[in-house]
Design goal:
The complex is a heterodimer of chains A (525) and B (235). Chain A is α/β, with parallel strands linked by helices and 525 residues long. Chain A has helices spanning 24-41, 67-75, 79-85, 124-131, 138-142, 145-150, 175-189, 307-318, 361-375, 381-411, 419-425, 432-441, 460-469, 484-506, 510-520, and strands at residues 2-6, 17-21, 46-51, 89-91, 93-97, 107-111, 170-172, 193-196, 199-205, 210-215, 220-222, 225-228, 245-247, 256-263, 275-279, 283-289, 293-300, 328-331, 335-337, 341-342, 345-347, 353-354. In chain A, β20 (341-342) and β21 form a beta hairpin. Helix content of chain B is 33%, strand content 26%. The chains are: A alpha/beta (525), B alpha+beta (235). At the A-B interface, α15 of A face β14 of B.
Chain lengths: 525, 235
Amino acid sequence: MSNGGEVGRGPAASVNTVIVVGGGSAGWLAACRIAAQAKRTGSGVTVKLVESDRIPTVGVGEGTWPTMRNTLAKIGISETDFIRSCDASLKQGARFVGWTDGLPGDAYYHPLNPPAGASEIDLAPHWLGRSDGSGASFADCVDYQAALCDAGLAPKTITAPEYAGHANYAYHLDAGKFATMLRDHATASLGVEHVIGDVTRVNQSDNGDILDVELHDGRRIAGDLFVDCTGFAALLIGGVYGVPFKSCRDVLFADRAIAMQVPYDREDDPIACHTISTAQDAGWIWDIGLWTRRGVGHVYSSAHTSDDAAEAALRRYVGPAADALSVRTINIDGGYRERFWQNNCVAVGLSAGFIEPLEASALMLIETSMDAIADRLPRTRAAMDMVARQFNETFRHHWLRIVEFLKLHYVITHRTDTDFWRDNAAAASMPDGLQERLDLWRHHSPAPQDFSHAREVFSWPSYQYVLHGMRFASHYPPVGAAASEATMATGLIARNDRLRADLIARAPRHRDLLRSVREYGLQRV
Amino acid sequence: MSRIRPLDPAHHGALRFDPGIVASTPRFVQIGLSEIVLAAADMPLCLAKDAHTGRFNLIALLGLVEPQNLFCVDGRFHATYCPRALQLTGFRLHPDGVAGLAIDEEDPALGASGQLLFENGRATPLTATIADALRRLIADLDAARDLIADYAARHLIRPLRLTLRRSDQHEHVIDGLYTIDQDALSGLSDADVVILHRADRLAPATLLSASLTQIERLCQLDAARHQQDRFHATF
């Protein structure tokens, strides 16, 4: 695949050309971010994207985080265009059904809004003091977004400016259409050069840097930095550099997914404004609503169930509509690279790692990677080594935290009905850090101090929503009614109740809002 | 409260229309493209989003905090120019009505004073005049929307946060209004300036901005109406 012997450029050589290898969501998002940043700063950096027209994209990731709003704005794509061209809908969080005990009525929300007053006060002890297990759920007590989801109401109105709303929100999208939209924008508006061809050889210099990728027709595409977006093939980070892959299958057991696209029965069927994640005997089913269809899939552990049984469970979940539908299978080799940036090559997307989509982390990780790369693009080859060290350290941390947070959903379950759930709760499968934190959180509410990074991908509110949603046994000291914090908490909870009532009365139905956006568009201001 | 009914001689045979009488409560009224130069002499002209479409409408502000038309005194409009939509609040286009009209039977301009809509059971020429005025108004409102859509596409619109403060420091903030972004207008390329000018779309932008000085007039009218300290407006 590669050869050496050619002399590379010196440490002072500037980084002028970035080559993104691979298309799909990761490749085009990477190209757009770097090209948009170059345009904004006038850095003169040029971007080329090399893509085979014979390799289909995986199309993973139909759920985003709220970060996508900022990413799209930075790239220069209007929210109206995005919603129209990607069949996108708005997402206000996730509803986890059957994860706690699997009994009827078992469900909780992980909304995208932080708890009320999160920058000033931790409402968890106040909720615990009020509820004693019998009052409003944690998510309902500290925020109004779960009620909006239950009522099928949108997080914004048609009069809200682009990328703003009365509640925090992300998106559900059609991954194939998303990549196409990004490609069109990258080539038409951001000056990205689209090179179509199969990479047959990678030429390296003496120091191991990639000089160019050679295509089947002999063309050599040279660059200073190479972004590996070649998906599971990991052509550069794996194929050229052989960076080891760190499996997390010992912690997260899901290794397979089957997916189907389910049309709506009627044109006016409600569109869920949240992801619905329903626990199964050996995994869980995702259910997301787009403008034109639902995307439904079963993530499962092949060690705990057969492919046939998993497909039968998915078809049972979908109902008669599934009879005419076929499924697509995706293998999940859960884990990530030990290093993401090696020499002048950085892996982004599936080439960097993959994990079950329980908290929709795939697109977020691409965005976060590109924030780090595009906003701090090394100016010289010498600077690249330092930036690479920072990048590797940061993303090792992020992956560890993501694995840990996903495991949290499984490990504190009360379910013991199948081997899958029993094995998941076994101490042997629990990361050390998580066990320590759980011991702490029995008596202390999750707080910013519990995490070492200033910018955690999952911060303490997310842990609170899952822990309290799953009735994790918490024993916090009671807050005296006369304490000043108690007055503040009472005020915030009462304000939250008023906001909920107001929004329930005036927020539009999710489908109605999407229809208005498609018909009239959103204003920029 | 409104009660819309197709215009018909059996129900409305004795009804008269007095265009000098206007509703006393609206704080703003939509205006058309051709009205900008006229309305700017009296009222602040702003943009507000339509609740159903989110698109910008061009409006003339008639009041401030209270739901009150400050130009309305004893039911009549007192200003150099009265917006057409305000004169025609009692009428709608309706295929089942005489002359293609429906009326709001609760509108103050329709009653015992003014000109008859029917004489001896037959529609007077006034009904056709009103229907024609309504059609022209609708087209004019659409033309204003097109103008504003062009401004929006060129990123020439900014939110207008209107803060009203009395001498006791009591403060009201009026959100949901928009205006021309003068910085963005100044930053237009030479080519865009020429394009806008040739399309007669540059002068209206300047007029809209200049009309904001009429907020001061609204503050004066408000103080006179309520016999209290004047608002001091910042925006």
